[in-house]
Amino acid sequence: MTRIPLSPEVRFLRIPTKWEMDFDKKGAPQVVRPTLLDAVAGNLDGWEIRNRFLRLRHTESAALDFLHDIGIWDTYALSDRRRLMPTSVFLDGPLGLWDLQERWRRRLATPKRLKSLFTPPTTENRLDASDPFFELSFGNPFFELTFRVEWQANQPIGVIETISGIQLLKATLLIDLMRCANFRICARPDCGIPFSVTSNHEKKYCEWYCGHIESVRRRREEGRHQRKDPRDGKKRRSR
Could you tell me the CA-to-CA distances from 34 to 47, 62, 87, 163 in Å, in that order? Predict the structure, then answer.
């Protein structure tokens, strides 16, 4: 069989969505529910959204802001299978938003384990159907991403389109693995999320902002070790 190389391009479509908190009978926050809005869809940076998800604070307000910006989080098909509907999102509990975040953080920190998902299952890498990475596992017929071929500058490219946060996360992971990316942990202590690296560059931070914050912190720390000499007005290191 002839193999034709295609450069992959991922397009993350944001469907405008309103998210509201719902509560249980005791008044405790239980789930956030979506309502589709009649507005123009836009595009997202998938890796920026993934980083934001991995460092998302466990608060109601942070969850609502994040879901509002991402649009649809996940979908389910109606009985006729021709129409997809947005699902509600639980914050706590198994496969809730916080549980998924922790699972993604652990998995991205172990790239060898991730790559094993795409090989025939063994006793070591077999996943339970309740695992959020089960759909990514080898030969699973339930994992689908919209894929088509387009021509740009007389060159064919493979286009993957996503319309939900779950699809976005899976698509970024697939592309990272296709690019033979490695994963590192962000050196900013209060970030510490895994991020992908596709070159030999010693990148320490997941994004420019984290590097900038750490640079500011270092300068402030150096300033604390200096004092002003009243005799000449010059700053000198304290002993």
Answer: 23, 16, 7, 14
SS3 110: coil
For 72, the 3-state DSSP assignment is coil
Query: Using one digit for the tens of pLDDT, what is the confidence trace for 10-20?
Result: 888 899 999 99
Residue with tokens 């002993």: 239
Distances (CA, A) of 78 to 75, 82, 83, 84, 85: 10, 7, 6, 6, 7
- Tokens encoding 75: 């979908």
- Tell me how crowded residue 175 is: count the other CB atoms within 10 A of its CB: 18
DSSP label at 1? Answer: -
pLDDT band at 101 (very low <50, low <70, confident <90, very high): very high
Query: Rg of the Cα trace of the chain?
Result: 22
* Rounded distance between C-alpha atoms, residue 17 and residue 64, angstroms: 11
Select, from the ranges 14-18, 101-105, 135-139, 193-197, the one with the highest average predicted confidence (pLDDT): 14-18
The secondary structure element, H or E, covering residue 210 is helix 208-224
